[in-house]
Amino acid sequence: MRKRNTLPEYNIPLYDRIFPPTKITLPNGHTVLKPRSRQPLIWAILVIVIFLSIKLTGFDLGIIFARGNQLTKILGRIFNPDIFHFNFSTLPPFFDNPIQWFGAFFDVIGQTYKASYAPKAIEPLLDTIKMSIVGSALGATLALPFAVVASTNINRNGISVAILRFLLNIIRTLPTLVIAKFCALIFGLGTFAGTVAITVFTFGVISKMMYESIETIDMGAYEAMQALGANKFQSFWTGCIKQIAPTYFSYCLYSLEMNIRAAAILGFVGAGGLGLIIDERIGWRSYEDLGTILLMLFIVVLIIENTSQYLRKKLS
Asked: For residues 219 and 42, what is the distance between their CA atoms, to the nearest angstrom?
């Protein structure tokens, strides 16, 4: 009878050496080895990692319970923006004169809006939107040619592809706030620095996503154009641009969504926009004003996000 080959002991996992598998006898008399579950080891490692993280970071659950009431007070003021402080007690009876009542109603709303912090936040909000749109458009435009050159199915020179991808990885790993800080030091405080920071961030993100998308397209039309004597630009424009256009515009819209949120905090490092007045209101503990700013930002982000999703569905 032929001997059954057995694995050498050094090929057996260390866990199975420490905790030998259970031998199970089947009804037909054969035996099988059932390895022991790794879950106890995984849970033990997870508990140790969490314990060490708590010790190293100085996390104290008692402070959360002791200071948790401050969080509810601050959130209570933020979710009570001054734009909602209407005084309807001055309204005349509705059934006496409905037209006069509606006029007084809209007058109360207008007075409340003017007395709130909302008019002061309009200009920084518009700056944030303009920074996001211009930065996204510039970054996305610059990203496309670099993404083409960084694609291995278009550029056959491995050295240039590796160098370009390395530079793109460096750009992409830099946080937007760090880029904005450098831009503020170079170009001065204001929205121009924020626009440049958003441009650089968008360039890094879209370049990465686009060269990965380009590498998955059908190269048949590109190779056919090359065989007919067309140069690389003509071949790519004719054979590939239609395949990547929907994906490219979808990435542009997605970047615009991200940049609207990112632009709102660039003012913390002097890059203009809503971040400047958000930092100012937090410093003055004006949480009702902060709630008004966040409400306006939420409405803008919601509109842009829904519009972007609708357009992306149409593109797909």
From this structure: 45
